[in-house]
Design goal:
By secondary structure, the protein is an alpha+beta fold. It is built from 7 helices and 8 strands. It has a single domain, classed as NADH Oxidase (3-Layer(aba) Sandwich). 31% of the residues lie in helices and 21% in strands. Helix 2 packs across helix 6, helix 3 packs antiparallel against helix 6 and helix 5 crosses helix 6. The termini are far apart.
Length: 250
């Protein structure tokens, strides 16, 4: 058992650096290595209430699908803006002093720290040049990463053909110290949970706006971090989501 917080934090970072996708971590995927389901004490099932309850959220979750063929179609800036606000936008000003402000956002965050950054590679979005940007939630704007190209980010994905023509490729990164300075190694877990909240918000907002998504864990970590100009020991990509219009609906 690790008792030193510094050692635990280093271990969390080592886990991240050594948990790249299959083939790059040195560990082969074994489809037969599936644990047996735990037996339950009482085998009699309890049927859930089958009555239909009208719910907008239930409707969105039922309609969410993964899309691997996107249509060549322009996305409005209004749609792109709504998607970014839904995933990590500011929802309220919670506390403010002369030198400091605390903002609430669209997802829960351990300690209200919000350690994630949202990078988005844009393609065919109205009023936005093709390129890579960082979403700035407080100022509600996009900051251009001049040295990045959308094509380069796309090629860091293991199956780039799945996201060809997607209007947005969102990469969620975590700044390790932002969470681990307070929570130690457990802060890494909190960042992963937060990235999941952001991804689900983005997926549901996309359904509502007539868009389709593909959640991506298969990408070259080292390459994508380098393309985005991230210092891997300080900040690294945790999760990606592609957003666009389903070719089947075109």
């Amino acid at each position: 058992m690790i008792t030193d917080a510094a050692d635990g934090t280093a271990l969390a970072l080592l886990y991240h650096l050594n948990s790249e996708s299959w083939g790059r971590s040195g560990i082969a995927f074994d489809p037969n290595n599936v644990p047996a389901r735990r037996s339950i004490a009482d085998p009699r099932p309890i049927a859930l209430d089958g009555a239909s309850t009208a719910s907008h959220v239930a409707d969105l979750t039922a309609r969410r699908r993964s899309c691997r063929q996107y249509a060549s179609r322009t996305m409005s800036l209004a749609t792109a803006s709504a998607l970014l606000r839904a995933c990590y936008g500011v929802t309220e000003l919670r506390h403010e002093t002369a030198s400091w402000a605390r903002w609430g956002r669209a997802v829960p965050s351990a300690g209200g720290l919000y350690p994630l950054e949202v990078y988005v590679a844009m393609h065919d979005v109205e009023g936005v040049p093709n390129g890579v940007f960082r979403y700035e939630p407080i100022d509600d704007c996009l900051a251009s990463l001049a040295a990045c190209r959308r094509h380069d980010v796309e090629q860091a994905v293991f199956s780039p053909e799945f996201i060809a023509q997607a209007n947005m490729l969102v990469a969620l990164s975590g700044t390790f110290s932002a969470s681990q300075n307070k929570y130690g190694p457990r802060g890494y877990r909190y960042m992963l949970l937060e990235a999941g909240h952001v991804g689900q918000n983005l997926c549901l907002a996309a359904v509502e706006l007539g868009c389709a998504t593909l959640c991506l864990g298969g990408y070259d970590d080292a390459l994508l971090n380098r393309i985005l100009g991230l210092r891997t020991l300080e900040e690294a990509v945790l999760y990606c989501v592609a957003v666009g219009f389903d070719k089947a609906d075109a």
